[in-house]
Amino acid sequence: MSSSAISRDDVAHLASLARIDLSEDELDRLGAELPAILEHVKVVQQVAGDDVPAMSHPIPVTNVLRADEVRTGLTPEQALSGAPDAEEQRFSVPQILGEE
Amino acid sequence: MTTDVTTASAASIAEAFADGDTTSVEVTQAHLERIASVDERLNAFLHVDAEGALATAAEVDARRAAGEELPALAGVPIAVKDLINTAGQPTTAGSKMLEGWIPPYDATVVTRLRAAGLPILGKTNLDEFAMGSSNEHSAYGPARNPWDTSRIPGGSSGGSAAAVAGYEAPLALGTDTGGSIRQPGAMTGIVGVKPTYGGVSRYGVIAMASSLDQVGPMARTVLDAALLHEIVAGHDPMDSTSIERPVPPVVEAARRGDVTGLRIGVVRELGGEGFQPGVQSAFDRAVEQLAQSGAEIVEVGCPSFAHGIAAYYLVMPSEVSSNLARFDAMRYGLRTVPHQGASAEQVMAASRDAGFGDEVKRRIILGTYALSSGYYDAYYGSAQKVRTLIARDFEAAFEQVDVLVSPTAPTTAWKLGEKSDDPLSMYLEDIATIPANLAGVPGLSLPVGLAEDSGLPVGVQFLAPAMADDRLYNAAAALERLVDTPKLEEVR
């Protein structure tokens, strides 16, 4: 694909990367909308020269570590309070690995 | 108090408490009644916690009666955007994904509200996960503009804006990622402030774009906003981007309101073509009033601002696609099982399709594209460089002037549905507010009256260097005295 062309198939691929099971209608609509948005935003490619550094954050971000001291956190009940499914103080999830 | 307490400012309510003229229970009850009478039309609240608010109010009243010295706004009720975690009260982010979710902990800003004794009336409507400029992207129906309920209240903090403008709450908290406090402030005729990035803790605030998000105050007066700002601002060890410096003296600045000798820069790129004539003329009149009261007005060029929207609509979706990956249907939130024996991945994809609305999906897909291999440098990388250029424009401008001004938004409030079919036209509404988020500087929107053409509120935006939030309050307080602040008579 060229710099701002994005096809319906591309949208389907992106949706699978983003783990969203889009419907056929949604794929049609996004396939039509995204090229228009990309056409507008691609101007960023022409603005800054190679000498301009990238900025990821408005302020310098450094890793912050707290003192290694025991503190009260959430109880297991609190941590699991919003879980769709839980058992034995654990999140219960559908099968992750394929059948052997 | 003899006048209707719901139209009173937070500062005057606090004074009335001190004078023994009213109680927090009385004031909180009056606001709950107002919510009961108008919120069916405004849809500003997604959840009202009458019991909790009245319990806090009664506790504050008891402490006051016992002679205890209380924080400045103790007992003054507040509304909180439903993107901000409140332990024991639902927090939906305006999304079906979090319908019925009750956070197990408070956001730091909520902890601070509780410590300061503010009864929390409830949680306000918003565009889903704060993505939108109109509130129409809420999964629970749009909040409406009290000036004209056929119109949008702005977004994404539209519920907070409608609640404050519609006298349902004297104060509210919003969040601002690209203008989501300032633009709804402008649309509904109230004050809205996006503090310096890092000035207010983001801990417990559901993340949209972490390098841009900031919590801030919404109120009907500059002083009220400052009083709330002072409560929620300040270093928080739970947020690694929180700035470890004293809170700028915002309350003192709001009381001062003196622009004599202040250098104010009018941003050349944020006006003229593309701006509604009624907005432009209200803005021009405000600038004239600032000049007459002793400010030195100069025109300032910020050429890279023209590319702000393009950079924002790459940086923001990229961060969105990464942040919203946490909604995986495994630990909390909606879980949709597409068929028996579905794998975790199939459950994830089905849940994310069912739980997210159109705008959220659009931004996740756009961000996934901008971050994907082969396009990363061309899109995300280039946008980050534009971000640097915008920050440099601000630096250069603030060498010449103390604060910058522009209209907050190019138009007044539009009709619900007017821009729904064209996402790009909605994105363009953010032109004046986005640069501050990209650079991390603070911004404030002040209502300056009604537009001659539409009869709807217009906001003027002030911008200042990082950690000089007090300059915003000083300049806005001065202008507030000069302009005819729009007064809503009744919800229409």
Explain this structure:
- The complex is a heterodimer of chains A (100) and B (492).
- Chain A is mainly alpha-helical and 100 residues long.
- Chain A is built from three helices and two strands, in the order H-H-H-E-E.
- In chain A, a hairpin with a 2-residue loop joins strand 1 (86-87) and strand 2 (90-91).
- In chain A, helix 1 packs across helix 2.
- With 492 residues, chain B is of the alpha/beta class.
- Chain B has a domain at 5-255 and 444-482: Amidase signature (AS) enzymes (Alpha-Beta Complex), CATH 3.90.1300.10.
- Chain B has 16 helices and eleven strands.
- Chain B has an eleven-stranded mixed sheet, sandwiched between helices.
- In chain B, strand 10 (443-450) and strand 11 (457-463) form a beta hairpin.
- In chain B, helix 2 (24-42) runs antiparallel to helix 3 (50-65) and helix 8 (250-256) packs parallel to helix 16 (469-482).
- The longest helix of chain B is centred in the C-terminal third of the chain and has 24 residues, at 377-400.
- Classes of the chains: A mainly alpha (100), B alpha/beta (492).
Largest sheet of chain B: 11 strands, mixed
Assembly type of the shown chains? heterodimer
Quote the distance from N terminus to C terminus of chain A.
38 Å
CATH superfamily label of the domain at 5-255 and 444-482 in chain B: Amidase signature (AS) domain
The largest sheet of chain A has its strands arranged as 1-2
Main beta-sheet annotation of chain A:
2 strands, antiparallel
Bin the helical content of chain B. 25-40%
Please, how many helices of chain B? 16
Low-confidence stretches of chain A: none
Q: Into which percent range does the helicity of residues of chain A fall?
A: 25-40%
Structural class designation of chain A: mainly alpha
Share of β-strand residues of chain B? 5-15%
Q: What structural class should be given to the helix and strand makeup of chain B?
A: alpha/beta
